[in-house]
Design a protein that fits this description.
single chain, about 200 residues, alpha/beta, 7-stranded mixed beta sheet, 7 strands
Length: about 200
């Protein structure tokens, strides 16, 4: 990318950092449906609030909101490190990870800076320190084993993307909150799920 092109991208990222919905509008072709006000407001809240959860029935666009929000964190924060988790690895691959691939494929900005793979999205400049990866736990895992899937993850711009959180154990949220334990770091938890149970992690975030 030449100097002029680099300046344009840097200016765009500065705008997107202040108002994430602008990235959703400008970085994708075609862009998400910006008439969904709850999505737009949720993306913009990422600039201020570190914890986001969407509880809804199937179909309103929770996975799109989750994917586009996570890609804002990854794309606009140098050396951001994220991990995505769902109730099973197959569920993650077939839903959230596939959705991430859809929006990656619609963004020349993301395609210029990152490589999308079957289990990781990595920076072309710093693949070892700037990435989004998969985490998983075995089917039938107990709450402690589920929480272990998220242990030991720290970074100045760390983030977790938790899909189908309604079926995860509350201990998963306790483990995810570990990203907030180091002062001075800007970290996020993004979560989405259905109210399928009264005891799942959805009620504890």
């Amino acid at each position: 990318m030449n100097e002029s092109g680099g300046t344009i991208v840097e200016e765009a990222v500065e705008r997107w950092l202040r108002k994430p919905s602008l990235m959703a509008r400008e970085a994708y072709d075609p862009a998400p449906d910006m008439s969904d006000v709850w999505q737009v407001e949720g993306w913009d809240a990422l600039a201020t609030y570190p914890r986001h959860v969407d509880a809804a029935c199937k179909g309103p666009g929770k996975t799109t909101k989750l994917a586009v929000g996570g890609l804002w964190i990854l794309g606009c924060h140098k050396d951001a490190q994220g991990e995505a988790l769902s109730v099973t690895r197959d569920n993650l691959k077939d839903n959230l990870w596939k959705e991430l691939g859809v929006w990656y494929g619609r963004s020349e900005f993301l395609k210029a800076l990152f490589n999308y793979g079957p289990e990781r999205i990595t920076s072309k400049l710093s693949p070892g320190t700037w990435f989004l990866g998969m985490r998983s736990y075995a089917a039938g895992s107990n709450p402690t084993e589920q929480a272990t899937a998220l242990s030991g993850f720290h970074n100045p711009h760390a983030f977790y993307m938790l899909d189908e959180i309604g079926d995860m154990a509350p201990a998963v949220i306790d483990a995810a909150k570990g990203v907030f334990t180091v002062a001075g770091q800007r970290c996020w938890i993004l979560a989405a799920g259905n109210r399928s149970t009264q005891t799942g992690a959805l009620h504890y975030i």
